[in-house]
Amino acid sequence: MLDWSLQRRAQWYYHNQALVAQNATMQAQMQNAELQAEIAKLKSGAVAINADYIDPEFEGKEDLMYSDDFVNAAYNPSITQPPDTQMSCGKMMLIFLACLVLGGLLIYSVFIRNWKE
User: Fold this and answer.
1) Is 4 helix (H, G, I), strand (E, B) or coil?
2) pLDDT, tens digit (0-9, with 9 covering 90-100), for 47-89
3) How far apart (Å, rounded) are the C-alpha atoms in residues 95 and 93?
4) How far, in Å, CA of 30 to CA of 39, rounded?
């Protein structure tokens, strides 16, 4: 895109402002004063923003606007599994037994040991 003419880049940036706002690299390129001047001309000319704007070079070949990785991810989304947060049966039994032992020790130390004395 950097090899495009200034007017062509301004046209693309003007129509794709929402995309530019999300991309830090594109925002850095927007700091170009000449590019800002071209975009200001478009704004002052009351050109309506077209969110579906396609550069004339890609007209009819819209798939070339996206990288192969992006297209592959769009057509073949990978579903990620959420982390397993459920306890296994063994862990639950171990916790239950530990609580049972601690409860038994508490009952023994409070009631039975004190009665023997």
Assistant:
1) coil
2) 888 877 777 777 777 667 677 777 777 788 777 777 776 777 8
3) 5
4) 10
CB of 15 closer than 8 Å to CB of 50: yes
Q: Which of 43, 56, 64 is nearest to 8 (CA)?
A: 56
For residues 1 and 12, the answer to whether their CB atoms sit within 8 Å is yes
| Separation CA 50–CA 74 (nearest Å) | 23
Measured at the CA of 47, the angle between CA 41 and CA 52, to 5 degrees, comes to 120
pTM over 0.85: no
Read off φ and ψ for residue 77, nearest 5 degrees: -65, 140
First to last CA, the chain: 89
Furthest C-alpha separation in the chain: 98
Q: How far is CA 3 from the centre of its chain?
A: 29
